Amino acid sequence: MTESSYGVQAEGIDTDDVTIAYIGGGSREWAPKFFRDLAISDLSGEVRLHDIDHESAERNAEFGNWVQDRDEVEAEWEYEAVADRDEALDGADAVVLSTQYNPAETFVHDLDIPKEHGIYGAVAATIGPGGIFRAMRTIPVYREFAASIREQCPDAWVFNFTNPVHFVTRALYDEYPDINAVGFCHEVLWTRHHLAKIVEEELGEEAARSDISVNVKGINHFTWIDEARYKGRDLWPLLEDLVDTDRANREFTPEDLEDDSPFTDKQQVTWELFRRFGVFPAAGDRHLVEYATSFLVGGKEGLNRWGVKRTTSDYRAKHWNPAESEQTTDVEAWMNGEREFELFHSNEIFDDMMMALAGEDTMVANVNMPNEGQVTDIEDGAVVETNAVIREGEIKPTTAGGFPRPVRSMINGHVDTIESIIEASRTGDIDEAFAGFLLDQQVRTLQTEEAREMFAELVAAEEEYLQGWDLDGSDVLAEADAYDA
């Protein structure tokens, strides 16, 4: 592993007095994990929760302080819901960004409208027509966040957990180039877990995620590894041997997957891409198919053949309701005693990173940051995902190298889409955004006129959330039958 000569640097963290501004502090999924992790960390301080849904932020503040009253808690944290964003950010040491609009009013359209045009996406969250519209909803807001951070806490460490990570992190830097921001995702962590499981099952040795080291590179949800080691032992020969085994050559039918969660990963897309291109994907199959789009051909049967099950719009619509969604945490049930509360670590790495930035440790983690040479085959400035060394006052990406030509071609096509949307967002030019939309590898399966109508339908369905875009001045929307200007 070679460290790069670039990265972000700022003052270290005082572990006994940390001020965290949590934008999106009404979070229904990540915030409860975050509060529990802090409670059993070696950090103490205050967390200011800001959300446009202030009532949700207040409920989470109540829950955070309730967690602090548990007997087993040693860390000292205070939680407060703050209605004014600038007040929440004022002087913060760290900023957490974790936001999403109501999926019943947004995400469902990202899934359903492209499906009506023959695009049977698996997730529609970070690329493809749905992922692009999620980005278009989010980028203008994150430009505002970056501008506020520049004014209120310019030296703060900024941790983005919001999808689409590559679009959003890129928008933060585009608005405020000196921001100390990193984007995070679980996918590489799960790949390391997958490799640890292979070690256990194929080599008969006990292995944990922490025993696995990889050289990771790419863009978020389309990351790849070309080195993998278990406690220093090279795993590449084992992976190459497994390509021809039953483990890597399974097929499925819709009936086989009927009772599966869409989050169940059969890894068959992973093995097929490794078989064809010689580098190992480091993201779940449900995300990979959105970038390697040939796997989407054939609709439900074509997708299910690889063991991938589509996330439905009905599932997304219920995501905010604890009574209907297993992913959504009902903190009130804990506080009211209706559900037993347990305090344990979530396996997120935020608190570990904060300790490293404070100088208490040095760690390596996968992060999303602008490319300054850490990935040789991707243009400078584009947000890429690689490992980084994190230590006192510094996050320094490692030099990861490049790709075989076919993989490089696929990645750079998506980078062109991302960069086109970012450029369009600077002025809110919706026609320029449509030009970037046409570059997307899923959209390119359509004739341009049908792509225009799909684009216009998505705009019409989500217009309320497309703040910052000049819809009235668009020639593309004026041409479309699906949009009533």
From TrEMBL:
Extract the Pfam families matched here. Answer: Glyco_hydro_4, Glyco_hydro_4C
Domain named Glycosyl hydrolase family 4 C-terminal: which ranges?
216-443
Q: Does the keyword DNA-binding apply?
A: no
Q: Which InterPro entries match?
A: GH4_Enzyme_sf, Glyco_hydro_4, Glyco_hydro_4_C, Lactate_DH/Glyco_Ohase_4_C, NAD(P)-bd_dom_sf
Biological process GO annotation list? carbohydrate metabolic process
Q: Taxonomically, which superkingdom?
A: Archaea
Q: Where is the signal peptide?
A: none
Q: Does the keyword Membrane apply?
A: no
Q: Which UniProt keywords apply?
A: Carbohydrate metabolism, Glycosidase, Hydrolase, Manganese, Metal-binding, NAD
Example of a GO MF term = metal ion binding
Identify which cofactors the protein needs according to its UniProt entry.
Answer: Mn(2+); NAD(+)
UniProt family annotation = Belongs to the glycosyl hydrolase 4 family.
Spell out the protein name for this chain. Glycoside hydrolase family 4
Query: Which species expresses this protein natively?
Result: Halorhabdus utahensis (strain DSM 12940 / JCM 11049 / AX-2)
Lineage per the UniProt record: Archaea, Methanobacteriati, Methanobacteriota, Stenosarchaea group, Halobacteria
